Amino acid sequence: MTADESWRLLEQLVQEVNQQTEQLKEMQRKARELSATATSEDGMVTVTVGPRGEVRTIEFDPRVYRRLSPSELSACVVEQIGHATRQVSAGMKELMEPFVPDLPFDDLFGEGTDFESFLPRPPGTT
């Protein structure tokens, strides 16, 4: 291999690394902005969660207090948080897939494992 060929190869490798770095930065930006919203079938409860599954907003239809008991309302909120968190996990997996296309989440980490299980948890939670 000549010196010119070596330099061209090195330039090509540097260009590829720079391109991958930019793609990773873009993926990180999109991941930070990722959110999902879930609304109950009756439209009474809407929940939005952020990229780590943190609850950002909970909205209630004004009629919710006449239609649902406190325990039904609580269960509905929890259910919508679960739906939105699964949507965020799916979005995060979709963002990451180009970088780890063949990562078999279920085979490696157990059936039903999703990206959320890899996220850091706030102190004091389990």
From TrEMBL:
<dbReference type="InterPro" id="IPR036894">
    <property type="entry name" value="YbaB-like_sf"/>
</dbReference>
<dbReference type="InterPro" id="IPR004401">
    <property type="entry name" value="YbaB/EbfC"/>
</dbReference>
<keyword id="KW-0175">Coiled coil</keyword>
<dbReference type="Pfam" id="PF02575">
    <property type="entry name" value="YbaB_DNA_bd"/>
</dbReference>
<feature type="coiled-coil region">
    <location>
        <begin position="10"/>
        <end position="37"/>
    </location>
</feature>
<protein>
    <recommendedName>
        <fullName>YbaB/EbfC family nucleoid-associated protein</fullName>
    </recommendedName>
</protein>
